[in-house]
Design goal:
Layout (H helix, E strand, L loop, with lengths): L2 H16 L38 E7 L2 E2 L3 E2 L2 E7 L8 E2 L8 E7 L10 H9 L3 E5 L18 H15 L11 E11 L1 H8 L11 E5 L17 E6 L7 H10 L4 E6 L6 H4 L3 H19 L2 H12 L5 E5 L1
Parallel strand pairs: 1-5, 6-7, 6-8, 8-9, 9-10, 10-11
Antiparallel strand pairs: 1-4, 2-3, 4-7, 11-12
Helix pairs in contact: 7-8
């Protein structure tokens, strides 16, 4: 996003969330998370396996969802598609054979899922189904109510339920293609807040891993709960919207295996929107993290440090 928009976003986010430092209640219908030490298991729950070695073509489709009748949540789905890899994204292309992990992505304030298409289609080409909702009050063209970010973890849990149902729905193109036992949540900026919330106050027990891009815990807290879910943080050290220190503080609070990819010259997230050297490093590092956490591929974990170091644009604090 351009700098003027990002700075306005920062002001709105800060004012709206400054008075919301207490953790919100768990979403309706979901039990409050158990934060006792016995609620954390010693190892990630995805069994060892091997991620696909080939790249896939990428298909895209739209799914119209609405939570409670007053929260429209159109979802963009990017998924591995049959056919040759490396071509243009094909609308409603047939899905590739196999069962694929699901990765949820939450956009930032005044953004849209398609703004992140370069990164998200790379995830899909690597063997992940990416589900990215457009939020009703924080996406481009809405009222820009930053406080509504606190409702978004429940939105994402609802989207996950409905998307996973497609894998069981007769006649749906994704029937039999989704693996409900291998799920991650990811998000940028306000979407990073949303993602953190899914592992704290609004813990969704179905999630196996998380990736937070330029996120903060304002409003959702750092009481990480439930079974182990490794986390990867990606943050620019020159972030002009969410300070690097704020992101690092959340990283430090995570009690599970974790890593932080720091970009010394990185700002609030321009690298996520283009196709430059930094995006290449971020894409490759996040793909290896997802291969490890969702496919259980130990070789992917071993490749993480080299991918992060390539080109000298980032450093990795690896505590995985």
């Amino acid at each position: 996003m351009r700098r003027p928009v990002a700075l306005v976003t920062a002001a709105v986010l800060g004012v709206a969330l400054a008075g919301c430092s207490e953790q919100p209640a768990a979403p309706a219908g979901r039990p409050a998370p158990d934060t006792s030490p016995t609620s954390v298991t010693p190892t990630p729950r995805v069994p060892a396996g091997k991620a696909p070695t080939e790249s896939f073509g990428v298909g895209v489709r739209q799914v119209k969802l609405n939570r409670d009748g007053n929260r429209p949540l159109p979802v963009t789905l990017w998924y591995p598609a049959a056919g040759a890899a490396g071509g243009a994204v094909e609308r409603s292309a047939p899905a590739a054979a196999g069962r694929f992990p699901v990765v949820l992505f939450s956009h930032g304030l005044t953004a849209r899922p398609e703004d992140y298409q370069v990164l998200l289609t790379r995830w899909a080409a690597a063997g992940f189904v990416v589900a990215a909702p457009r939020f009703p009050h924080t996406s481009r063209g809405t009222d820009g109510n930053a406080l509504d970010v606190l409702n978004q973890p429940a939105d994402v849990s609802y989207v996950l339920t409905r998307v996973l149902a497609l894998g069981e729905k007769a006649g749906d193109p994704l029937r039999g293609r989704l693996d409900p036992e291998r799920v991650a949540a990811t998000g940028h900026s306000a979407g990073g807040v949303t993602t953190i919330g899914l592992f704290t106050a609004g813990r969704d027990a179905r999630l196996d891993a998380g990736i937070v891009f330029a996120g903060t815990a304002l409003g959702v807290g750092t009481a990480f709960a439930g079974t182990v879910a490794p986390q990867l943080f990606v943050h620019g050290e020159a972030d002009e919207v969410v300070s690097y220190a704020a992101g690092k503080a959340v990283f430090d609070a995570v009690p599970w295996p974790k890593a932080m990819l720091s970009l010394p010259k990185g700002d609030h997230g321009r690298a996520l929107l283009g196709d430059g050297k930094a995006l290449g490093v971020v894409a490759d590092t996040t793909i290896e993290f997802l291969r490890w956490t969702l496919y259980g591929d130990p070789a992917a974990k071993e490749r993480l440090p080299a991918d992060a170091a390539r080109g000298g644009v980032a450093t990795l604090d690896d505590r995985l």
